[in-house]
Design brief:
With 114 residues, the protein is mostly helical. Helices cover 65% and strands 0% of the residues. The longest helix is centred in the middle third of the chain and has 34 residues. The chain is elongated.
């Protein structure tokens, strides 16, 4: 859709942070944390033939760690979202409220696709 207001802005003028779009949803866990869990899981897979029970224990531990990290990340995301809209006046801040609703929708849909 054509945005006349945006088209009239000088070239090179950046959008405000709330309007910036990323190529996709940001990961729920930082790459280093994800890689650490995946490394433990790969180790469990590679050692299964020699020590099956130890490998299963390690895989279970990696699962538990990933679950705990995910729950923590989701709780932190919720707190950030809530802080952004909880004290806003619904009449004067409808763009911020709409943005928060979109973010809740996005994260909930991602959770339902797991």
């Amino acid at each position: 859709m054509y945005d006349q207001t945006r088209a009239q802005q000088p070239a090179g003028q950046n959008r405000p942070p709330t309007e910036r779009r990323t190529p996709g949803p940001e990961p729920l866990l930082p790459p280093a944390e994800r890689e650490q869990v995946l490394q433990r899981l790969r180790h469990a897979m590679n050692t299964f033939a020699e020590t099956p029970r130890d490998a299963l224990t390690e895989a279970e531990s990696a699962y538990d760690e990933a679950t705990a990290q995910l729950v923590g990340a989701l709780a932190a995301r919720r707190e950030l979202l809530r802080a952004g809209w909880a004290d806003q006046d619904p009449e004067s801040q409808s763009d911020e409220l709409r943005n928060a609703l979109r973010q809740y929708r996005e994260i909930t849909q991602r959770l339902l696709q797991l």
